[in-house]
Design goal:
Layout (H helix, E strand, L loop, with lengths): L4 E7 L3 H12 L1 H8 L2 E8 L13 E3 L2 H6 L5 E4 L6 H11 L3 E4 L2 H18 L3 E2 L10 H8 L5 E7 L2 H13 L3 H10 L8 H4 L2 H15 L9 E2 L7 H9 L2 E12 L2 E12 L11 E8 L3 E8 L3 H17 L27 E11 L4 H11 L4 E6 L8 E8 L2 E2 H12 L9 E5 L4
Parallel strand pairs: 1-2, 1-4, 2-3, 4-5, 5-6, 8-10, 10-17
Antiparallel strand pairs: 7-9, 7-11, 9-10, 11-12, 13-15, 13-16, 13-17, 14-15
Helix pairs in contact: 1-12, 2-12, 4-5, 5-10, 7-8, 13-14
């Protein structure tokens, strides 16, 4: 690394890449003073030009691998995304002795174990603050600020697209498809929004948070996923009536029997801080043995917010030429696998919505099934049938029950002639 300046190669000049370059140029004096040396973008890997943006005197290459091979680059910033070219690029850059900064959560979740080990062996840093929750400094919080805490739980809203959709549906009664179309028009959701909707994006981020929190290897196959596309305005309204908000949460929890990793729509008491985080904001709650409960809230995506975290990692590289310690808080070979608790064994309180024929004895039959399986009811809402209708909704909140137990009960209940097959089943988390 140059003693006079940190020479930066930026690969990928989309929204985040351009915002990163802009910060480094426009705030040059401030960030250089804080870094302790000049920060200079010397090479840009871009498939096309952006005439409205000034790269200064940086060299521009169409082949990003040229940036990795450039001896005039000290740190390579990977903002391409995906797990193909980005993986090859980072491996090559590490082999060339370059420090790495990335915002690529999928790459870290899927290949982080290998890449962190390679970086450690090569004596280079690999920063990934921007890979989770955009501008929220959650990686530093877990790895550094809470290093003296035993963390038993991390939970949060870690996908802004999903949070925006549920917020609009809840506050305005809008249909899922309508809000999704608006999210795409506003740039909150991709043309193919699958990863946001089905929980994949949140699962990638949860894997990273769990590894940091519990000292376990990254395990992309670990999380149980449930998307938001099955949540209806009806369920959001009933949740509100019962004093809850529905949020799409990632939850990592450690116990004596193993680790829970799950992503799913969740009812949260309306007075909890997570329940009040709306729109495209992210929020992460950490439960530490010494500090207690900490909640970080902020923009989870967007060019400037994500670039803020990218630049923070670049400054760290400049400040600590010999490294800031292991990327995951522990050396890669010290991460210890723990059993993953199967979904069916994970206990929660539950929200259950049924549609039944309004006949005497139906309610007693339902409660008997629940009682036989050891499931107690916390609250119940039963509406009178509308004029001319013979079917009524029944909404139950239960006490703690394992998923296999509640789904078994629901299967038995829906076998009754008076109960319709359509059932809404959502976990409830009180975080007490």
């Amino acid at each position: 690394m140059s003693d006079e300046a940190l020479r930066i190669g930026v690969c990928g000049v989309g929204t985040v890449g351009l915002a990163t370059i802009d910060i480094l140029h426009q705030q040059s004096a401030m960030v250089s003073a804080r870094a302790g040396k000049d920060l200079k973008v010397t090479h840009v890997g871009a498939r096309r030009d952006h005439a409205e943006h000034d790269y200064g005197d940086a060299r521009v290459s169409r082949d990003v691998m040229d940036v990795a091979r450039d001896p005039e680059v000290d740190v390579l910033v990977e903002l391409i995304g995906g797990t193909g070219v980005a993986y090859d690029l980072i491996k090559l850059a590490i082999e060339q002795g370059k420090h790495i900064v990335t915002a690529n959560k999928a790459l870290i979740a899927e290949h982080g174990n290998e890449l962190f080990a390679l970086a450690e062996a090569a004596g280079v840093q690999l920063g990934f603050e921007a890979s989770v929750a955009g501008g929220i400094p959650i990686i530093k919080a877990l790895r550094e600020s809470m290093a003296a805490n035993e963390v038993k739980q991390v939970a949060g809203i870690i996908n802004g697209t999903g949070n925006f959709i549920l917020t609009e549906m809840s506050s305005k009664g809008r249909a899922f498809d309508d809000v999704l179309a608006e999210a795409q028009a506003l740039g909150y959701a991709e043309a193919d929004p699958t990863f946001d909707i089905d929980g994949t994006d949140a699962a990638h981020k949860l894997v990273i948070l769990a590894s940091l929190a519990f000292g376990i290897p990254l395990n992309i196959d670990g999380p149980v996923k449930q998307g938001i596309n099955t949540v209806t305005p009806t369920d959001l309204n009933y949740a509100a009536e019962l004093g809850y908000r529905v949020k799409h949460l990632g939850i990592a929890r450690q116990s004596e029997t193993g680790v829970e990793l799950r992503v799913h729509p969740t009812l949260i008491p309306e007075q909890k801080q997570l329940a009040t985080v709306d729109g495209v904001l992210n929020a992460v709650m950490i439960s530490g043995s010494a500090v207690g409960e900490v909640v970080l809230v902020g923009p989870g995506a967007g060019g400037p917010a994500t670039a803020s975290s990218v630049c923070a990692d670049i400054i760290d590289v400049a400040r600590h030429s010999h490294g800031t310690g292991p990327a995951m808080g522990l050396p890669a070979n010290k991460l210890s696998a723990q059993p993953l608790i199967p979904s069916g064994e994970i206990a929660s309180e539950w929200y259950v919505r049924l549609t039944v024929v309004d006949r005497p004895g139906v309610m007693s039959d339902i409660t008997q099934v629940l009682a036989d399986r050891g499931i107690s009811i916390e609250s119940l809402v039963q509406k009178a049938p509308e004029a001319g209708q013979s079917e009524v909704p029944i909404v139950l909140l239960t006490h703690m029950a394992a998923e296999s137990v509640i789904t078994g009960a629901v299967d038995e209940i829906t076998a009754f002639e008076e109960v319709r097959a359509e059932v809404a089943l959502l976990r409830v988390e009180t975080f007490e």
